[in-house]
Design a protein that fits this description.
This protein has four helices and no strands. With about 140 residues, it is mostly helical.
Length: about 140
């Protein structure tokens, strides 16, 4: 590179200052904008995250609602109610033959109930059993 030629008239070129007034004003405006916009941008990004979370929760809730409606429709069917009563509560319809399978060496609930009825001479109604337990607890 060639050194800068002196200007006409004998004046030399001066070095520019690193920090000018324009640069200071521009830097101040940038800092002011960052300070002013930081909070709204943070809220905007936070609300986008909340919206994504809420939409995911809405999707799950709608899926659960569809499942519950299916269950409600099933329970409206008398055949399904009867099937569930038989399976869950071990109900039997009049005329049905009930089989109880027990492991070898164990007594079935029917034998236990029959044994307690014959031993006490009374039926196994719930109120009789309750009263007997109250009397035995008082001794």
């Amino acid at each position: 590179m060639k050194p800068a030629a002196p200007r006409q008239g004998g004046t030399e070129r001066r070095a520019r200052p690193v920090l000018t007034g324009r640069a200071l004003v521009l830097g101040g405006i940038v800092v002011l904008l960052v300070v002013l916009l930081a909070s709204p941008i943070h809220r905007f990004l936070g609300s986008r995250s909340d919206i994504a979370t809420t939409s995911e929760q809405l999707r799950k809730d709608q899926q659960q609602l569809r499942e519950l409606k299916r269950q409600k429709d099933r329970w409206a069917d008398p055949g399904y109610v009867q099937q569930q009563a038989r399976a869950r509560l071990q109900y039997a319809m009049p005329g049905d033959t009930v089989y109880v399978v027990v492991d070898k060496g164990q007594r079935s609930d029917i034998e236990k109930t029959a044994g307690s009825t014959s031993a006490t001479g009374r039926g196994s109604e719930w109120n009789t059993r309750l009263w007997d337990s109250v009397r035995s607890a008082g001794k």
